[in-house]
Amino acid sequence: MTAFGTRLRAALDAHGPLCVGIDPHVHLLDEWGMDASAAGVREFGLRVVEAAAGRAGVVKPQVAFFERFGSAGFAALEDVLSAARDAGLVVIADAKRGDIGTTMDGYAAAWLTAGSPLEADAVTLSPYLGADSLRATLTTAVRHDKGAFVLAATSNPEAFALQSAQVVDVAAGDGQTVAERVARDIAWVNGSAAFAGGLGPVGLVVGATVDRAAVGLSDEALRGAPILAPGFGAQGASPEDLPALFGAAASHVVASESRSILSVGPAAIAARIEERAELYREALRG
Ligand SMILES: O=C(O)c1cc(=O)[nH]c(=O)n1[C@@H]1O[C@H](COP(=O)(O)O)[C@@H](O)[C@H]1O
């Protein structure tokens, strides 16, 4: 398999930044005429995959909406993940896992290992047990040509106080924000010579609603890392904002939208994906 960063770059080059979020909220299942059940989320997910294939490069199933139906929900998610991968989409499982290092091995085996029932191309990870607790998972990702997106500055407003807080690093003798520290702590992975000049396998989550300067995430802090940017669409940011929001990093942003696409319903979703995908491509062309 080719490295995750190479696969992601190819998907972004072919289709532009749009990532279609697969978030089967109960109200959406209802609007789509589907049951609030494992069968419903399976059908919903497969319809979104079908609409996204060939129109967007990346999809992001939100694990929570499948998990709520227990083992049957996970079986539905397995089908959606494998259909998306078979359709050639880059699949980011939005599971936001984070634990002590030894427990993380289980999550790496689940999400980032070929042949696992829940195999994805990448998974979202939380660094709040210390970015070093993710070290072995990130190493596994690289070894398996998989990727990860680590939460740095999330799109929800209530995250700001924590993620913009100053960390006092006695050894380094300077202050930096929590978000900046997360970016610095994962930079070793993408800094490897194997990824020089391309996109590394480990990205950061930086919301499109975030004031990057206030959380200390300069263009330099984002260099080489793919950026997963939720916050477009329903949370307020627009495709045309992309270049201004992300500056030099804009070309490696994966711009995620869920409700703003899914809310149009099954008959109109393919056209909606095409329309949103084109807006992002236009924004990058300038
Ligand atoms: O990791 C994520 O995808 C994520 C990070 C973040 O900072 N904010 C955020 O909204 N998300 C996810 O992105 C999706 C946003 O959905 P919409 O607001 O409907 O586009 C949800 O699945 C969230 O869990």
From TrEMBL:
An example Gene Ontology molecular-function term: orotidine-5'-phosphate decarboxylase activity
Keywords for the protein's UniProt record, in alphabetical order: Decarboxylase, Lyase, Pyrimidine biosynthesis
Gene3D superfamilies the UniProt entry points to: Aldolase class I
Family matches, as InterPro entries: Aldolase_TIM, OMPdecase_AS, OMPdecase_type-2, OMPdeCOase_dom, RibuloseP-bd_barrel
Enzymatic reactions: orotidine 5'-phosphate + H(+) = UMP + CO2
PROSITE patterns: OMPDECASE
Claim: Lyase is one of the keywords in the record: yes
Pathway per the UniProt entry: Pyrimidine metabolism; UMP biosynthesis via de novo pathway; UMP from orotate: step 2/2
EC number: 4.1.1.23
Pfam families: OMPdecase
Presence of the UniProt keyword Lyase in the record: yes
Highest taxon in the source lineage: Bacteria
Domain Orotidine 5'-phosphate decarboxylase: start-end pairs: 17-273
Active-site residue list: 96 (proton donor)
Top-level class of the enzyme under EC nomenclature: lyase
Protein name: Orotidine 5'-phosphate decarboxylase
Source organism of the structure: Microbacterium gallinarum
